[in-house]
């Protein structure tokens, strides 16, 4: 595969530990990473304790159908946008009835980039379903730009998604 250092190799294990400790679950919606995030989560023995499902929603139609991403967001912002990353994460979380949803959307290259959306642009979405009536549920998306060839952009995007998920899980009180 790619050169993943020890820290990157361990992030999926740390995600699993954090989810298991809190009794939380996760579902994954991927576009540019094409299943890499889910594959890394399933590399960990016992991941069925916390991983509910993964969806590779590469096309706009797949995002509409499987995740209920709005046509308005796709038209107004494009598939590679914070708005769509948020809707992907929220959609997979809600359709899977999990505590967490994480999503990736971006441009892996080598073609497809523009001045506004260069090759290597990635959005990672994270959605949290807090206990009902707590008012603590949220959805967010963060923007990244990674250098490298197609494989490197995909690998770095998957690592970033796992890192963002881990940080979000660790930031939660754990009482949910």
What does this molecule look like?
With 176 residues, this protein is α/β, with parallel strands linked by helices. Helix content is 43%, strand content 19%. The protein contains six helices and five strands; from the N terminus they run H-E-H-E-H-H-H-E-E-E-H. The chain has helices at 6-22, 36-42, 60-67, 71-77, 82-96, 150-171, and strands at 26-30, 51-56, 100-106, 121-128, 138-145. Strand 1, helix 2 and strand 2 form a beta-alpha-beta unit. Helix 1 (6-22) packs parallel to helix 6 (150-171). The longest helix has 22 residues, at 150-171. It is globular and about 45 Å long.
Radius of gyration: 15 Å
Give me the side-by-side strand order of the main sheet.
2-1-3-4-5
User: Regarding quaternary structure, how should these chains be classified?
Assistant: single chain
Main beta sheet: 5 strands, mixed
Number of strands: 5
Overall structural class, as computed from helix and strand content, comes to alpha/beta
Helical content stands at 40-55%
- Indicate the low-confidence ranges by residue numbers: 1-5
Overall geometric form? globular
Count of helical segments? 6
Reading the helices and strands in chain order gives: HEHEHHHEEEH
């Amino acid at each position: 595969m790619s050169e993943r250092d020890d820290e990157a190799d361990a992030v999926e294990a740390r995600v699993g530990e954090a989810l298991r400790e809190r009794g939380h679950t996760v579902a994954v919606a991927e576009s540019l990473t094409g299943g890499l995030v889910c594959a890394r989560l399933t590399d960990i023995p016992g991941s069925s304790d916390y991983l509910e499902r993964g969806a590779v929603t590469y096309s706009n139609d797949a995002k509409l159908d499987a995740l209920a991403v709005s046509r308005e967001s796709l038209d107004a912002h494009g598939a590679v946008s914070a708005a769509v990353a948020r809707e992907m994460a929220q959609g997979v979380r809600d359709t899977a009835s999990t505590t967490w949803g994480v999503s990736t959307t971006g441009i892996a290259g080598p073609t497809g980039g523009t001045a506004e959306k260069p090759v290597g642009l990635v959005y990672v979405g994270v959605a949290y379903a807090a206990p009902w009536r707590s008012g603590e549920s949220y959805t967010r998306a963060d923007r990244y730009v990674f250098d490298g060839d197609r494989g490197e952009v995909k690998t770095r995007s998957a690592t970033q998604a796992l890192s963002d998920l881990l940080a979000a899980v660790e930031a939660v009180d754990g009482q949910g």
